[in-house]
Amino acid sequence: MKIYKRIIRIVLFLLLVTLVYGIWYAWRAFPIISGYGAKNMASAVFLQHRNPEDVLKEELNFFPVSKGSFTVNREDSSVTGSVWGFAKRKAIYRTGVGCTLVNDYSEAEIRAQHFNLPAVPSQNRDTIAWPYGDKISDSLPSNIDNKALQQAIDSAMQMPSKKGGPAYTRAFLVVYDGKIVGERYAPGFNKNTVQIGWSMTKSLTSAVIGVLVKAGKLNPDAPAPVPEWQHTNKEKIKLKDLLHQSSGLDYIEDYNGPSEATNMLFKRGNMAAFVAKLPLKDQPGSVFYYSSGNANVLSRIIRHTVGDSVYAGFPYKALFHKINMYSLVLEPDASGTYVGSSYSYASARDFARFGLLYYNNGLWNGEQLLPVNWVKETTQPAPSNKQQRYGYQFWLNGQDDKDPAKRWFPDAPADMYFADGYGGQNIFIIPSKKLIIVRLGVRTVDENKYLREVIASVKN
């Protein structure tokens, strides 16, 4: 009888521990699930004008996000997410700046924010030649094997995800020697559809930093101008350390559960302030660690450098509209700072224009928009990155994980560098092959395969 009672007590104790852990985990995780789904549903519905059922099926069908419920309210342009009725989170849409999660600030405060954005020129872009417009030449360079190129594009569009199942590739575009030579879209998407860049946004943020470096307002070798870091052990963090993902901050980039990354993106209204307050873990510049937090600190540095009165329009006026990237939407957090790590939307052609800016060493239509050495510095491996895979918020074709003698993408040249986002959003820039390749979708595919096939379609 005593043994029986002891077993009962142990079982009850274990049940209690399990219940407490479940409540603790739900308290931390449910708001992230609700926030992730609400934000992505809102942007898909109000920016991309998509059907909510399609978004649930394609973007929000994975565990644990699939356990959430997401309600679209077209009257106030919002989406509310919850998990079994708990942890409600709301994302609101505002014209010109996309969608923002309501966190730390009231909805009224967020809706009252004013964004002074430049107007997009009213012109028929289909009558203006690429890249300044959308008129594409029917003729192809003589060294392009069009049949092989079209087969490569077909293969890329139909390629399954690395984990199996559909990859939902929505756009695939190839630029050779500055000209669009191949382009394909999934049903329901076209050259005007804006699509999420996810972490390709980091590369956009880096480019805006470059504009300020050219203007003499920022210096990569100087301490990062972050107010919270003055007179602390973090004041030695250089702007270059943030660009190189080597800040040394105690930050975890993990999307499988609660972490600094998920807390920042889905539970904080001022993302950069949240990251800036994190303790220092490593000596600045000494350890490479990929962090969306670093990119959001960079984004707020841009805001502080140019001032609130011009900040909202600055990235567009100073750079993106100058390269005819008119579809771009940068989405802010609740504090009004653009989420420089993750939230940009643009058409495939506009992402290709951004790649072309770098391919042309920062020169566009006769104007040097980036410092003349910016692309060269961008493509130099961070000293802390032993695999030589990362520069200034761009990835490089560095070493293979298992064999340092081989490249990460073995069938692509060593000079290839690229903007990369969750789910296989990519802008590959290959100077030696005169190629820019853009792929946009939901799931990651075998990038090396489609790179190999596209490269093979160009006759040397």
The ordered string of helix (H) and strand (E) elements is: HHEEEEHHEEEHHHHHHHEEHEEHEEEEH
- Strand segment tally: 15
CATH fold title of the largest domain: Beta-lactamase
Class derived from helix and strand content: alpha+beta
Quaternary class: single chain
Main sheet: which strands, in order across?
A: 6-5-15-14-13-12
Evaluate the radius of gyration.
23 Å
CATH class of the largest domain: Alpha Beta
Q: Could you explain the architecture of this structure?
A:
The protein is of the alpha+beta class and 460 residues long. The chain folds into two domains: 2-94, no CATH class; 146-456, DD-peptidase/beta-lactamase superfamily (Beta-lactamase, 3-Layer(aba) Sandwich). 34% of the residues lie in helices and 15% in strands. The protein has helices at 2-46, 52-58, 107-111, 146-158, 200-214, 239-243, 260-267, 271-276, 292-306, 308-311, 314-320, 348-359, 374-378, 447-456, and strands at residues 68-73, 78-83, 86-94, 98-101, 171-176, 179-185, 195-196, 329-330, 344-346, 363-364, 367-368, 395-396, 417-421, 425-430, 435-440. It has a six-stranded antiparallel sheet with strand order 6-5-15-14-13-12, sandwiched between helices. A hairpin with a 2-residue loop joins strand 2 and strand 3. Helix 4 (146-158) runs antiparallel to helix 14. The longest helix has 45 residues, at 2-46. The termini are far apart.
Write the layout of secondary structure elements.
Layout: H1 2-46, H2 52-58, E1 68-73, E2 78-83, E3 86-94, E4 98-101, H3 107-111, H4 146-158, E5 171-176, E6 179-185, E7 195-196, H5 200-214, H6 239-243, H7 260-267, H8 271-276, H9 292-306, H10 308-311, H11 314-320, E8 329-330, E9 344-346, H12 348-359, E10 363-364, E11 367-368, H13 374-378, E12 395-396, E13 417-421, E14 425-430, E15 435-440, H14 447-456
Antiparallel strand pairs: 1-2, 2-3, 3-4, 5-6, 5-15, 7-9, 8-9, 10-11, 12-13, 13-14, 14-15
